[in-house]
Design a protein that fits this description.
CATH class of chain B: Alpha Beta
Number of helices of chain B: 3
Structural class of chain B: mainly beta
Bound molecules: flavin-adenine dinucleotide, zinc ion
Strand content of chain A: 35-45%
Pfam families (chain A): DUF6510
InterPro entries (chain A): DUF6510
CATH superfamily of chain B: Oxidoreductase, molybdopterin-binding domain
Largest sheet of chain B: 6 strands, mixed
Order of helices and strands of chain B: EEEHEEHEEEEEEH
Number of strands of chain A: 8
Structural class of chain A: mainly beta
Largest sheet of chain A: 5 strands, antiparallel
Shape of chain A: globular
Chains: A mainly beta (88), B mainly beta (197), C alpha/beta (245)
Helix content of chain A: under 10%
Distance between the termini of chain A: 36 Å
Distance between the termini of chain B: 25 Å
Number of domains of chain A: 1
Oligomer: heterotrimer
Chain lengths: 88, 197, 245
């Protein structure tokens, strides 16, 4: 738990929020401009909380916090997300 | 309705009246990080107070120790629901750190090596309630637990006890730090279960 | 929808190594899964406390049966329960299949370019790679597959008998790294995976293989860095870190 995992691990928590598989969305880092699939980001996990960082520059892309009744998604470091359309 | 997993109780958890609501005892000291652990040599370490004060001030490692370390015995409570009772630390009281600085603002933002920030009211830093800790259980503080020095504000949830602390910026108005911007509570009182927004 | 939790029932359990076992689940309504996907598994204590973890799926294809394989972490919360406590007939909450990135899809037809595939696993990191190897065998694919499997000692190999069987295919080769104890008659000496070992046991970058690396975070980092040094474009190396050291 001390070391990070890949953005793949976000597939479950993000499936509560989006119908598309967001781990296959490409994501542009607002800090360094790198574009990579979310599956490639670095995920630091603790209970109820996921911190997601750019795999190139380490800047924070987004955080997910699962409260008792609501989930909060903060997209503080994401410039753009491009998501494959279903069935294509 | 979730199904109960036969025979599963979770990590050794004990509830106790000494614990804030929703907290469980742990014997270990879990490491929960939001990013990589910064490596800071004590020879490079500095700590400073800035912002809304009559005079800003900074200390290197030796100068900081000259402020005088004291023994601290306290319970700590993490927002991820573990608590640890009777931990012992050594550190410099913030009463000493802020003494004579003529602190005007009522709020403080702790800034850290690695970029993490967290906000704490100045009143919660004074009166023997908060320290900059450099030792845990008789040994220098491990980098993964915030070494060489971390803020220790044990009456609030432990994310307020910023690891790798580097600055305290005094502010006239309250502002959210890293976790607070991300939905954690602005104050974080474990006894009132102020976990998230 | 994949975001919903469903209840699976344990139908079989088999020891894999001294610290791990495979767990077969029957999950009504499971839509099938691609090779390399994972699921999330949630345990609930009588007082309502829950713990959720991700586990790769060792099987692929249609059907409502999925197989997991879990290694026990000494001070872990969930893995010791799954390895020591769980019995056939128990119910588990799962959601999935999850993740469309760390997956291998068999070529659509014989004319599709058959890019070679290099699998590199450390310890329990074999699990999603096993799904890929099984999918490869299931469609009798002629895509060249090569597996490099790093284990502490011979008894730490997951799916040992089945891997030996798969390796009889002319399109599937296995190379080994033994970090602590090598089997008798093994030519090399035990030790961690090195650049030299990767250079000799991995499909060369010149053949542009699709590379899948999975295992403990430290293992994956080391291997991924060395592969880039050996000329594999980072974009061709997909990783699945399990966490831990
Ligand atoms: C996409 C993905 C797929 C995966 N697939 C597999 C798989 O196929 N097979 C497999 O075996 N694993 C897999 N894993 C790893 C798995 O999800 C778990 O992380 C693993 O089983 C350990 O969980 P645990 O609850 O036993 O350990 P945890 O309780 O999560 O602890 C992990 C380590 O951290 C320490 N620790 C953490 N928190 C505390 C605390 N509060 N107090 C004390 N110590 C603490 C423990 O000492 C322990 O060694 C996968 C992970 C991911 C992200
Ligand atoms: Zn970046």
């Amino acid at each position: 738990m001390t070391s990070h995992v890949d953005g793949n691990a976000l597939a479950g928590p993000l499936s509560e929020l989006f119908s598309a598989d967001m781990t296959c969305a490409s994501c542009r880092c607002a800090s360094c401009g790198d574009v990579a699939d979310l599956a490639e980001a670095m995920v630091y996990q603790k209970p109820n909380t996921y911190i997601v960082r750019c795999h190139r520059c380490g800047a924070m892309l987004l955080t997910i916090i699962q409260g008792s009744h609501r989930t909060r998604l903060e997209l503080s470091g994401v410039a753009a997300l491009s998501v494959p359309r279903p069935g294509t | 309705m979730p199904i109960i997993s036969r025979g599963f109780s979770g990590r050794r958890r004990e509830e106790s009246p000494q614990l804030p609501p929703g907290q469980y005892l742990t014997e270990d000291f879990p490491v929960l990080s939001a990013g990589p652990t910064p490596a800071i040599a004590t020879s490079d370490w500095v700590f400073g107070v800035t912002g809304d004060v009559a005079e800003t001030r900074a200390w290197n490692w030796e100068q900081f120790h000259e402020l005088g370390l004291e023994e601290i015995h306290t319970d700590i409570h993490c927002v991820t629901r573990w608590s640890k009772l009777g931990t012992s630390w050594r550190g410099v009281s913030l009463d000493r750190v802020l003494d004579g600085l003529d602190v005007a603002g009522r709020f403080a933002m702790a800034g850290c090596y690695g970029g993490y920030t967290t906000n704490v009211p100045v009143d919660d830093l004074l009166g023997g309630k908060a320290w900059i800790a450099t030792e845990f259980e008789g040994a220098p503080l491990d980098p993964e637990h915030g070494g060489p020095a971390r803020l220790l504000v044990p009456h609030l949830y432990f994310w307020k006890s910023a690891k790798w602390v580097r600055t305290l910026r005094i502010m006239p108005k309250d502002e959210p730090g890293f976790w607070e911007q991300n939905g954690y509570n602005m104050y974080g009182d474990p006894w009132r279960e102020q976990r998230y927004w | 929808m994949t975001g919903d939790w469903t209840v699976g029932t344990v139908t079989a359990i088999a020891p894999q190594t001294p610290t791990s076992r495979s767990i077969d689940l029957e999950v009504p309504g499971w839509p099938g899964n691609l090779a390399g996907q994972h699921l999330d598994l949630r345990l609930t204590a009588p007082d309502g406390y829950t713990a959720t973890r991700s586990y790769s799926i060792a099987t692929a294809g249609a059907g409502t049966r999925v197989q997991l394989a879990v290694d026990r972490l000494p001070d872990g919360e969930v893995s010791p329960y799954l390895v020591d406590e769980l019995i056939v007939g128990d119910q588990l909450e799962v959601r999935g299949p999850l993740g469309g990135w760390f997956v291998w899809r068999p070529p659509a037809d014989d004319r599709s370019p058959a890019e070679p595939v290099q699998l590199i696993g450390g310890g329990s990191g074999i699990v999603p790679l096993m799904a890929m190897a099984r999918a490869h065998a299931a469609v009798a694919s002629t895509v060249p597959f090569r597996l490099l499997y790093s284990v502490r000692a011979p008894e730490d190999v997951f799916f040992a008998a089945e891997l030996a069987e798969l390796a009889r295919s002319p399109h599937f080769d296995i190379d080994w790294v033994y970090t602590r104890t090598a089997p008798e008659g093994w030519s090399g000496s035990p030790g961690r995976v090195t650049r030299e070992r990767l250079a000799e046991a991995v499909v060369p970058a010149a053949l542009d293989p699709a590379v899948f690396v999975c295992g403990p975070t430290g293992f994956v980092e080391t291997v991924a860095d060395l592969l880039v040094e050996l000329g594999h474009p980072a974009a061709r190396v997909k990783t699945e870190r399990f966490g831990g050291a």
